[in-house]
TrEMBL record:
It comes from Glacieibacterium arshaanense. Its EC number is 4.2.1.1. Reversible hydration of carbon dioxide. This is Carbonic anhydrase. It comes from the Bacteria. The keyword Cell division does not apply. One of its GO terms (biological process) is carbon utilization.
Amino acid sequence: MPSFATLLDGFRRFRSGEYQDQRRRFDALAMHGQSPKLMIIACSDSRVDPTRIFDVDPGQVFVVRNVANLVPPYETTPGYHGASAAIEFAVTQIEVDYIVVLGHAQCGGISASLSGKFDGAAHGHGGFIGHWMDMIAPARDATRAAAAANPDVDAQQVLELAAIRLSLDNLRSFPFIAERLEAGTLKLRGTHFGIADGILRVLDEDTGRFEPVPVG
């Protein structure tokens, strides 16, 4: 398994390889700052790196990662709203054109929600995770009921896709996002990546179905 020393070895390879190859881009980014037109909200899962999945260069996407790629609803209650702050920054300061929610197969957060593993857990023992996943509790309950009634239902995938839809709905609850959607200056897209099969599915807003992206 990688250790911190492994990370430093990787940095050395990056510094002598890709960094040199992309030196002009890094110099421009250092001088002029970032101005990506895409924001990606992805899961923290180590197997799902959006910059690799979409093969993008440094400075091209603004990325936020958290457990199960969830977007909380718009709220102004006291507390630290990390995901909301990042969304606000991307939309109002960088002025991105797209926000893409990237879910994935075999998501541990989704699995924990289905199993109830962290329900009622104390902080430091899964409580933060359990509270975060409470966002999808209604969808989880509906998925459990559907799976109980029909053993052919893939509860894991159903809830993964439901979580993406919920995140898109929650994005629309932010007033500054709703304004830009109405004006046509911002678009939202939902996507789901299969770790085992390498298939990327994109939510078709007209049909409500996740359709695979054709590849060569």
